[in-house]
Each structure stands twice: as structure tokens, then as C-alpha cells.
Design a protein that fits this description.
heterotrimer; A mainly alpha; B mainly alpha; C mainly alpha; B: 2 strands; 67% helix; C: mainly alpha; Helix Hairpins; 3 helices; elongated
């Protein structure tokens, strides 16, 4: 049952990722990204990372993706303008990507991963555990990240403001 | 309109009535065959004989007896309905018959749901204790039919003087429920059924509310009693409407947008509990999951506007995007306050947010302290904006943008957007009920609650103290408030929408969140005596305000009901000059 | 092998998504397309983090890292879109091949 679910969600994520690459229309690309994000969120549920799955859906699908679509609307001359790369660029890119995929997969499969903790993991980390770790062990990165978000907020507002005012 | 213009329908009345006779004949014949099969199966399998119970009979009994009986009865009823359609139609037009059918259908659905929940309980309880594994047809199972029969034989039916549920057929029916998969399928069917009732009922009710608020009657004709069949008639009309797709838009995204707008609110019901055990999957991040689903819905609206390739639609989509992205922040932050009070993101279960407000209505989080009280109203305002309900219905504002993102939609796709909107309204109301208004508790104090395990105790507990019934009642009340606001307040301008979010709600929510944090710190961890006293005083003042508001609303409603002949229709006339 | 899901399945999936992200970054000339490629790459990294957290350590560290990655991705998208809007106001296009001047 778990294996079936994994294959379904992995197929969703992968096929949408292929869609991202091949679709010419930028809004369709963004919608394919939604498929990938949703598939990956379902995989997080399978990996017992419920909190992460919910954050992925809220921040990525509900926030970042809307921002991207918004950006598309604000920056397009006409909805059907398509910039296509030259054939040489495509061939080179495919070659690099194929090389990278084969290299990574060979590496992952040939590595003998240590078998993990001695006892089988009965209790996977809950939301409360993630929160505890976030506010004790990783307090410094957490604070840095919040400062970074503030900087990003001010920076984005500064960059995007109209020049004339 | 004497002629039927559909091309595939025969036009001559003789042909039509011969078709009708054929249909009646075939329906009744096949139904009778099914009933005969069921009778033969009854003779062969002896499903009413308690001594003849056997595991191999489960599948044959379910297929050849129960299935054939249900199919036969259904087919014969359908045949009779076709034969006597004129008489049935006349009966339906007599208004109180329709009302009675409506009411008994509602009560019947409630009882059916109740029965199912109780069956789940009956089966799950012994399954969790039983350890024997049997595998006859390849599927391992823990309870044989005899075990199920023994379990239900121990259950007394209340008010019958000690008679028990010792019905062998029931044992066959309950047996499949021991598999989690079957229970999941039944639960999903229940959720989908409930969710499809919401928009049908909501649209009719909204039109009635709109009518009453505007001093008119609303739909009155279709189906007899107060136009109760209006939604069904609308649905039939919308299915047969031409489905237009703008040729210059993006047809694929145009079709996809509908599903992105209406599936996420449906998925939110996966994690939305109706009572502590009445939830499909009790996620520990249920609140975040529901918020995520409400957030994804926006994408559908933006896409709809974009794919229509129409200026009005794109304006609507842009408005929706900036409105949603800004209102999600105060909404999420206001929801953090009950989460902070409860220390959990889980909605259902015995440890979840709603269970921590069990007992009397003064335990509800909305009355806990002034900050929670404010957070409730902030959340409710933001949730109106997130469902794009008036006064925040800028994305479709029909007076300026034709219909906003809906401009190019028609027929079934258009109605699916409304489907999504009503379901989302129900979800945000349900969230408010669970987080602030005590969830599925009725508000009566815990001490009065019967705690026994007998069927009558379970019944009274579910009816009066806690259970899905109360969740649905409270949520429907908030659903009504959303309609009330929609038809009372005028639509605001887009700059006012953004002003009220970014410059009013957002700073207010930040202050409320900060002060609530400090408040919890000082009362629960530092234990400042004067603050605890102040907190208690404020708590009871808020409870008093709540009671007064509730009684006031009841009083106004009863006054309006008693004077409805005088009020309806007279209100507009009084305002006219010279009256 | 095929019915028992282990860490290798997740790693292979993430490698494939990573390569597709690289391909997307290399073949799109629309700046927002490149941003979407970056999101794919970040997602593949997150899958790895969570898979290792589940199958190797069993602790919440991987989840925390993934949360930080999601957060940084959101920040990155906000800044990137602001930059693209500036790019668009000065050049009237978001074709990245046209952005080869430091001053216009």
C-alpha cells in the first residue's frame, strides 16, 4: 500500500517536473510546478513529515507560487510571447542534465548507506519535536532567518517601488 | 413551447407513451427477477437463522440477498414512479407534503449517519481487543461472523424491555466494517455526500435570506414549500447550458482552473473534525493543512482570470491575488492565538484544540481573555475576505467588472466555482467553531452529562451534550452570519480592502498576538496574582457580553418572526418620502 | 526491491527532479522560468533531507533544515520577482539574454 502510494506521488511529481521543462507557456509552467509541489508534499506525508508537508503547501503552493503567477502577470507583454532557446542550447542542456542524473543516481545506488538507528523508528518526529528543536538547538539560525525575512521584505518593497515617486 | 426541440427525443406523443410503457414493463420485470433471486438466496443461505451462521456465507449473502433485495426494490419503485408520475407530481405540489419529505429526509440522513457511527464503534471496539487471525478467502481478518453476532447480541435496544440486537442478517452487514479500508470508503462516501448537500442547501438559503433582507420572498415556486427545489432546478439548468470556452484564451488552463478552485476546499474536509472521533484523518497539523487548502483555492481563481484572456477577468484575478495574499497574514496570525492557548495544532481527538474547551460554554476560547475575543473577530473578517464574500467580493464584483474572474464561465464550470465557494465558507465557519466556539460541545456543563455506555446514554449524550450535531448547528449559524453580512454591507473599494488589511487588521493582530503571549506568560508561568484576578474578571465580563448578545439576537429574531406579516414588505415603504 | 520502499527510491527521485530543475534553468530564457527551475532544485534537496531524516537519524533535524530551505526559497522568490519587475521596467522584456548590460 505504501509502495503504491509512493509510486503514484512520485509519478505525479516527476511528470509535473517534466511538464515544467517542456511547456512553452510560462503560466502552464507555473501550474506544472504546482503539481510537483503537491506531489512532493504528499511524499512528505508518506515520510511522516506532516508539519513539513503542511508548510510546503502553505508557503510554496499558497505563497511562492501565487507570487510567481503574479510576477508573470506583471511582466508579460502579451500572454502568448514565447522565448525559445536555440537548438544548440537545448542539446547542451540536455546533455548536462543527463550526465548529472546518471552521475547522481549511480552515486546514490552504489553508496552503501549505513542502516540507520539500531531500533526501528516507531515514533517519527511530531510537530512538537520540530518546534522544540527549532527553538533550542537551532535558535540562532531561526533568529537569523527571521532577520533575513525582514530584510527581504524591506528589500523587495524598495526594489519593486515605482521609480517616479 | 408545445414541441420538444431536443433532436434525440421522439416528437409524437404515441411514441413517447409507448416508450414509457416499455420502460415500466422492463423496470418491473427486472425488479421482480431480482426479488426472486433474493428469495431463492434466502432459502439457500438462511440469513435469518442464528444457528446457520458461517463465514463462507458472507459474500453470497451480501451479493445475492442484500444486493438483489436492494436492487429489486429500487427497480420496482422506479417503475411505479414512472407509471404514476402525474399523481406523484400533484402530491409534491401540495406544499406541506414537500416540506414533510424534506424534513423526514433530513432526519433520516441524521439517523443513518448516527447508526453508521455506532456500528463503527461496535466493530472497532472488539477488533482492537481480538487477537485471533483467520484467513479463509486469502484476506486475513480478526472477527468471524459468529464473533460479530455475539457482540451485537450483547447490545440492548433502549425502551424495548431488554430486547437485544440479535439479528443474524445484521451480523453479515456489519462484518465487512472490520476492515479499515471498508470503513475509509464508507467515511469518504459520507463526507462527499455531506459536502454536496452544503452548496445545494446554501444557495437556496442564501436566496431566501437575500430576499427577506431586501423585503421580498425569494424563490417561492419550485417544488412547493418555499421553493425548496430551487437548487435542484438550477443544477439541471446549469448542466444543460452551453459550455463556452473563450477561443483566444488558454483552453487547457481554463478547464483546469475550475478543479484547482473547487477540489482544495473538498480536501480540507479530510482534516476537519465533526466530533472528537468523527474525522477522516486526525492529522497533528490539521489546522495548517486546512489553511493550506484554503490558500491553494486562490490559485484557481487567478488562473481562471488569466486563462479567460479577458480584461475584466484579469482585473478580478489580480484583485483576488493581492486580497488573498494580504488577508492570509492576519488570518493565520489570529488563528495562532487559540493554538497558543491550547498548545496544539490538532483539531480533533481528545487532546485537540476543541476538546480543551469541553464543558460549559464559558470554557470556550472566545471568552478566555480579551485578546482571544478580538482574535475571533479578526479571524472572521479575514475569513470573509478569503472566501471572497461580500463586503470583500472584489474579484467578481458584478457592478464594475461584469463578473470578474467568472465573466467567461458558464454552465457546469461556473457552478463548480460556486460549489467551491460555499464549501470554503463552510470550512472557515467550521474552523471558527472548532478554534473559538467549543467545537462539538453544546455548551452545557460537563456535570450533567450521562457517562454510561448503554445505547440510550450514547443517544442523549450525542443529542444534548457533544457530537457532530452541535458542530453542524454552530457552523451553520456562522454560515448564516456570512450571508447576513453579505446582504447587509455594501462592497468596499479595492484600496479600502488593502487599507483595512495592511493598516488596520495587520497591526491590530500583531498587537493582539504579542499581548496574548505576554498574558499567557504572566498568568500561567509567572503567576502574577493581580493579573490572574483581572483575567478572571475580564473572562466573566466577556461571558456576560456573549450571553447578552446571544439572547439579544434570539429576542430580535423572535420579534421579527412574530411580526413578520407586518415587517415584510413594509420596511421599504416606510423609508419612501411622504410616507 | 520494488515493493519495499527504502531510502534509495527517494534519492533517485530527488536526483531526477534535480536534473530536471537544472535542465529547466538551462533551457528557459524567461527569467521567471529560471526561478521555477531553482524551486525544483530546492525541492529535490528537501526530499533528500527528509528522507535521510526518516531512514537514517529519526530525529527532527532534517525537517528543520527543510523548513529553512522553504523559507529561503520564499524569500528568494520575493526578491527575484522584485528584480524582474525592475528589469522589465527598464528593458520592457524579461528575456534574460537581453540583460547583458550593466547600465542601459
Amino acid at each position: 500500500m505504501d509502495a503504491l502510494a509512493f509510486y503514484i506521488f512520485a509519478a505525479l511529481a516527476l511528470s509535473s517536473a517534466v511538464g515544467v521543462v517542456v511547456s512553452k507557456n510560462i503560466v502552464r509552467t507555473a501550474i506544472c510546478l504546482l503539481g510537483t509541489l503537491g506531489g512532493v508534499a504528499c511524499l512528505y506525508f508518506l515520510l511522516d513529515a506532516n508539519f513539513l508537508a503542511a508548510v510546503q503547501l502553505i508557503v510554496y503552493a499558497g505563497g511562492t507560487l501565487i507570487l510567481i503567477v503574479f510576477g508573470v502577470m506583471l511582466t508579460s507583454q502579451s500572454p502568448w510571447v514565447v522565448f525559445s532557446p536555440t537548438r544548440g542550447q537545448v542539446v547542451a542542456a540536455c546533455f548536462v542534465a543527463l550526465l548529472m542524473a546518471t552521475g547522481l543516481i549511480t552515486l546514490f545506488i552504489s553508496t552503501d548507506w549505513p542502516t540507520g538507528p539500531a531500533a526501528p523508528l516507531t515514533a517519527s518526529p511530531k510537530v512538537a519535536d520540530v518546534g522544540t528543536v527549532l527553538l533550542t538547538q537551532y535558535l540562532a539560525p531561526f533568529e537569523v532567518a527571521s532577520v533575513l525575512l525582514l530584510v527581504v521584505m524591506i528589500g523587495a518593497a524598495y526594489l519593486a517601488r515605482s521609480e517616479k515617486q | 413551447m408545445s414541441q420538444i426541440t431536443l433532436p434525440w427525443v421522439e416528437r409524437s406523443p404515441e411514441k413517447l407513451s409507448s416508450y414509457r410503457r416499455k420502460a415500466i414493463f422492463r423496470l418491473i420485470l427486472i425488479g421482480a427477477l431480482h426479488l426472486g433471486l433474493a428469495g431463492a438466496a434466502a432459502l439457500w443461505l438462511q440469513p435469518f437463522n442464528a444457528d446457520e451462521l458461517a463465514d463462507w456465507k458472507i459474500v453470497p449473502t451480501l451479493v445475492f440477498f442484500v444486493g438483489a433485495l436492494a436492487a429489486g426494490l429500487g427497480l420496482v419503485t422506479a417503475g411505479l414512479a414512472v407509471a404514476y408520475y402525474k399523481q406523484i407530481g400533484r402530491l409534491l405540489l401540495f406544499s406541506y407534503t414537500a416540506f414533510a419529505i424534506f424534513c423526514s429526509a433530513v432526519v433520516g440522513v441524521c439517523l443513518l449517519v448516527w447508526l453508521h457511527a455506532w456500528l463503527f464503534h461496535v466493530v472497532q471496539h472488539p477488533v482492537s481487543k481480538s487477537t485471533n487471525e483467520i484467513a479463509v478467502i486469502g484476506i486475513p481478518y480478526t472477527m468471524s461472523v459468529d464473533d460479530v453476532y455475539a457482540t451485537i447480541s450483547a447490545v440492548e435496544i433502549p425502551f424495548t424491555g431488554g430486547r437485544t440486537l440479535a439479528i443474524p442478517l445484521l451480523a453479515y452487514l456489519i462484518w465487512p466494517l472490520q476492515f479499515a479500508f471498508v470503513r475509509d470508503v464508507v467515511a469518504l462516501a459520507g463526507i462527499i455526500g455531506f459536502v454536496s448537500i452544503i452548496p445545494a442547501f446554501g444557495i437556496w438559503w442564501e436566496r431566501k435570506v437575500a430576499g427577506r433582507i431586501q423585503s421580498r420572498m425569494g424563490p417561492m415556486r419550485t417544488g412547493g414549500w418555499h421553493g425548496w427545489a430551487q437548487s435542484a432546478a438550477d443544477g439541471i439548468k446549469l448542466v444543460f447550458k452551453e459550455d463556452l470556452i473563450p477561443p483566444t484564451g488558454d483552453p487547457l488552463l481554463f478547464k483546469l482552473a475550475v478543479y484547482i478552485a473547487f477540489i482544495p476546499p473538498l480536501l480540507a474536509f479530510i482534516a476537519l473534525p465533526f466530533a472528537s472521533a468523527w474525522v477522516f484523518r486526525d492529522l497533528d497539523v490539521a489546522l495548517l493543512f486546512i489553511l493550506a487548502m484554503l490558500g491553494i483555492e486562490v490559485l484557481g481563481v487567478i488562473l481562471a482570470g488569466w486563462a479567460s484572456n479577458n480584461k475584466w477577468s484579469v482585473y478580478g484575478a489580480m484583485r483576488e491575488a493581492c486580497q488573498m495574499v494580504s488577508y492570509e497574514i492576519p488570518m493565520g496570525m489570529a488563528l495562532l492565538i487559540p493554538v497558543m492557548m491550547a498548545g496544539s495544532l490538532q483539531l480533533g481527538g481528545t487532546e485537540g484544540i476543541a476538546s480543551q474547551q469541553a464543558g460549559g460554554f464559558w470554557n470556550w476560547f472566545v471568552f478566555a481573555n480579551p485578546w482571544c475575543f478580538m482574535a475571533f473577530f479578526i479571524y472572521y473578517t479575514a475569513s470573509l475576505a478569503s472566501c471572497k464574500r461580500a463586503p470583500f467580493d472584489l474579484p467578481e464584483s458584478e457592478s464594475e467588472l461584469v463578473a470578474g474572474f467568472l465573466t467567461e464561465y458558464s454552465g457546469m464550470r461556473w457552478s463548480l466555482f460556486f460549489f467551491g465557494e460555499y464549501v470554503a465558507m463552510y470550512v472557515v465557519s467550521g474552523l471558527a467553531v472548532i478554534l473559538f466556539l467549543g467545537g462539538w460541545g453544546s455548551g452545557l456543563p460537563k456535570e450533567w452529562m450521562p457517562t454510561g455506555d448503554s445505547l440510550s446514554d450514547v443517544f442523549f449524550r450525542g443529542l444534548l451534550f457533544e457530537g457532530p450535531l452541535w458542530f453542524v448547528i454552530k457552523t451553520t449559524a456562522l454560515f448564516y452570519v456570512q450571508m447576513w453580512i453579505r446582504w447587509t454591507l455594501p462592497r468596499v473599494r479595492i484600496d479600502q480592502v488593502l487599507y483595512s488589511c495592511v493598516q488596520v487588521l495587520l497591526p491590530l493582530t500583531m498587537i493582539v498576538l504579542l499581548v496574548n503571549t505576554l498574558w499567557i506568560l504572566c498568568t500561567e508561568h509567572l503567576k502574577w496574582a493581580w493579573l490572574i484576578t483581572l483575567n478572571t474578571w475580564l473572562h466573566w465580563i466577556l461571558v456576560a457580553i456573549g450571553v447578552v448578545v446571544f439572547l439579544g439576537c434570539l429576542g430580535i429574531a423572535s420579534y421579527g418572526y412574530r411580526n413578520n406579516r407586518r415587517l415584510v414588505g413594509s420596511m421599504a415603504a416606510v423609508q419612501l418620502p411622504g410616507s | 526491491m520494488l515493493t519495499e520502499i527504502g531510502i534509495n527510491h527517494y534519492l533517485v527521485l530527488s536526483a531526477l527532479i534535480f536534473s530536471l530543475g537544472i535542465l529547466c534553468m538551462a533551457t528557459k530564457r524567461n527569467a521567471i522560468g529560471i526561478l521555477i527551475g531553482v524551486e525544483l532544485v530546492l525541492n529535490s534537496a528537501n526530499i533528500n533531507l527528509v528522507a535521510f531524516s526518516k531512514y537514517q537519524t529519526g530525529a527532527a533535524d532534517g525537517h528543520v533544515f527543510a523548513v529553512f530551505v522553504i523559507l529561503l526559497a520564499a524569500a528568494e522568490a520575493a526578491i527575484a520577482i522584485a528584480i524582474f519587475m525592475n528589469f522589465y521596467t527598464s528593458l520592457r522584456t524579461i528575456d534574460v539574454d537581453r540583460g547583458d548590460e550593466l547600465k542601459n
